[in-house]
Amino acid sequence: MMNGTRNSNNQTIHEDFLALRIFQGTGMCIFILTGIPGNFLVCYLVRRTRRLRTVTNLIISNLAVADLGVCLFNIPVSLVTVIFNRWVLPNYVCRIAGLTFALFLFEALWSLALVSISRYWCIVQPAKFSYIFTRRKTLAMIIGTWALSLLCALPPLFGWSRYVFTVDKSTCYFDLSEKSDLPYTVTLAIVMFILPYILITVPYSNIFRFIRGHSRRLSVNSVSSSLRKTNRATFQDFKVTKLLLVLLCVFAACWTLHIVVNLLNGFSMIKKIPRILDAISIFLTFLSSSCNPFIYGLMNKKFRQGFRAVLCAPCQKCHKPKPRKLERKVSGETTRNLSSKSRSSHRREWKSVADKGATVYETCV
Q1: pTM for the complete prediction?
Q2: Does residue 335 sit in the same domain as residue 188?
Q3: For residues 145 and 112, is the Cβ–Cβ distance under 8 A?
Q4: Which residue among 186, 196, 282, 355 sits deepest, i.e. has the most Cβ atoms within 10 Å of its Cβ?
Q5: Is residue 226 scored above 80 in pLDDT?
Q6: 157 with 206, same domain?
Q7: What is the mean pLDDT of the chain?
Q8: What is the CA radius of gyration of the chain?
Q9: pLDDT tens for each residue of 157-177
């Protein structure tokens, strides 16, 4: 009777892990199929679309590069280990997988910190924003975050801690169980987790304190239409800030569990992480890398228009819409009744106005 109970318990545990692995494998396939084209499309649009070439979108495209790296390399490696339930790849692949996973995680954190800092200067100190966050300086900051992330991800390859495969995580990760690795754990906790989280939360708390005061001033002067026209750029900044706040909340929801659990394990506060908890925490990190493009598309009109233009391009080639006739009343007549020379001059005038309108928020939004 006792043996039968033990065997049934073991069979139940095995079935639970099998169900967990099926769930993980299905989710990883979805993440690969959506994350790779989605993040690539974000980078493509920022590179090719003039209206999206802003400082903020430059940082967002850098975050998309880190997410694309996870979807291209780390998720497929984890998918293989989930299918076989063990490590079947060469040992050097384990070290590369651990290095890239840590590198992309650190870079994502520092990219979000850079986004928060840029939003603070854009909203609260707009006069200084254009001086601090020029395109060249922003690129230098991005390169600096990659260098710092690489510097903190390399030590396990040279004997300070190591990257090991754990079946619970279905990937290679830091081995933080040894007491000799405690200094490295403390370094990671401060430089790669605590400091970025401070740089993310403090600027945003100041931003929303500023927005609250700004909203009160607008409510008092709501009758003045000229004031609303003056604050049109500020309203646009608030919309972008809202998008980036959602991005930060999704990232925190997906990564906080993984970071906290593994730091507690590194400081020996948790001796053994339960397999289900470990698997869910890794699963959520992969979800974060694939869902960001959908956030951009849902909450940002320019990205949504760019996605639609690229994805619907084959249909538009087959079914080209007829160009709309240009009409505008000029001295009681429409441009249809004007000469071709007059119509072309009006078109040039409107194009000039549209170009000016497109560059109003080019440096900040």
Answers
A1: 0.77
A2: no
A3: no
A4: 282
A5: no
A6: yes
A7: 77
A8: 26
A9: 988 888 999 888 888 988 877
